Amino acid sequence: MTARPPFHAVETLLVDLDDTLVDTRSAWRSGFARTFAPLAARLPAGGARGPVAELHERLRRYTAEEQRRAGDAEWSHQWTRLAFRRLLSELGGTAEQADAAWSRYRATWPLYLRPFPDAIPALERLQGRCRLGLVSNGLSADQRPKIERFGLGRFFPVVVISEEVDLRKPDPAILAYALEQLGAAGRAAAYVGDNPSHDVAAAHAAELAAIWLRRPGGWHAEQGGLVPDAVLSSLAELPRLMGLDPPGEAPP
Known about the structure:
By secondary structure, the chain is α/β, with parallel strands linked by helices. The protein has 10 helices and 6 strands, in the order βαααααβαβααβαββα.
């Protein structure tokens, strides 16, 4: 394997979208809470077991199980629909209630999407330092609106979404494709993302330096045996890692 470059030598930085730049996790939680609140009163007595946060965690776990059953398939909202049916069945609800809740949830959670406060400032500092590319698993209809809504496209001359290229992390080919589109194939590069099993694994398989963004309270709290080249708790740390001095601070 080719030795990965030190970060000050990195010329191209590829960046993940969900839970790296955009707080998707919190949007899911808030959307579920808003969806479930009016439903709880219509469930059988004692059916709504546990706090809403625990119910959402069960929904997320059931969705992940559906995703694993599908293997290497692209993301499908039907997995969440099946997870809603399973959860509502356990709570004494009906399939009709589950499908109605799933429809409300799909319409509601995107309203709570926000970029992380550290995302735009970090990208503004990095924009002149290296080539930037955005690489995300997901559906175009989900990911493109996030990029447009928060003005992220101005930072990324190349945006690669898995559905559009029929490649998805942890397959390193999606990162190689992004580098080719940037004209940066064979150059020193790194990838930053929040999910070790997708982002760190793909980066190392593509012989890129891997930066794990381990946000406090994030979904992906464990490395799963994968060893990133750097671990950050905030994107505010990224410019310094890439060799940039803090704003207003001159190099020694």
